[in-house]
Automatic annotation (TrEMBL):
It comes from Pedobacter gandavensis. This is SusF/SusE family outer membrane protein. InterPro entries: SusE. Residues 23-128 form the SusE outer membrane protein domain. Pfam families: SusE.
Amino acid sequence: MKSNIIKYISLVLVAIGLWSCKKDGTELVSNVSPAGTLTASTSALDLSLANAANTAVTLSFPAPVITGVIIPVTTTIQIDRKGKDFSNPTEVVVTTASYAPKVSEINAILLGFGFKAEVPAEIEVRLKSAPAPNAITYSNVLTLKATPYFAASWVYAPGAYNGWGVATADSLVSPDSDGKYTGIINFPTDQLQFKITPKKSWDFSYGVLGGLLSSDGSAGNLAVPKAGTQLISVDLNTKTFSIVEADLWSMTGSATPLGWGSDIDMKFINDGKKTWKVTADLLAGELKFRKNHDYGSNYGGSGGNLVFNSSTNIPVAQAGNYTITFDIPNLKYTLVKN
């Protein structure tokens, strides 16, 4: 009798186990609907600094439908220049069934793609739905038209390097006027202190107090840790700042009075365009641009076009005083005779 009871219990346990496996096997199946239709509240975006805080466009789409086992689905808005086939898109992960970026956000994306301010541009957007790396689907593609604006604003950094002259102080730029400013300034030896002024005036200035930017009268001067080119970043929203050593670009070559192996240092222009510039006397000859006085990273080229680590030197046909512009983002240079 006892043996029969044990056998009965064993059969019940086996049956329960089989039922559980079948149930688990059923629940392991998950079906996720493909990316749905993407719609936009407008295809012609109105961008301007005056409405920077407004919504530029609202992109809407259906949430994915999941049956069976519930799994996470990563939904992403992809944005790219029109005609680029989303080869290097800006991506924004969204957790709701819409995406409503501000005017300032779209403007920053356009400028980041290299579109010029005040020049009409076109971008494409689509929805990417990814429940798994091997199960990615995409929505329809929408084309949006917009004209980006130049949104930059500046603060100034008078200091010992320029005799504390606020009118001639170098600047820090905020490309999106969001209170975050950066700039590269060259500090000579023993001239390392400076302050931040919102305008070219001593009426209001920031020093440092307790490790933060402060306009308190007891705030001390900011100071870079060493001489040379320094990247300065300040956030007037949080009153924080950072200072790190920056790369320096210079010119060398037979077209410079110093010859090959010696350098004429260039100045970084804090205008948001990331160019370097210098005015110098040149000779008929050749030159190159190089980073940190080293040929390990250099640009040559011709016809106004830069080529990284090129064996071709940039020609200078005639001696004279020139304004030289070195534009890395656009791989261009100019030699303008004054």
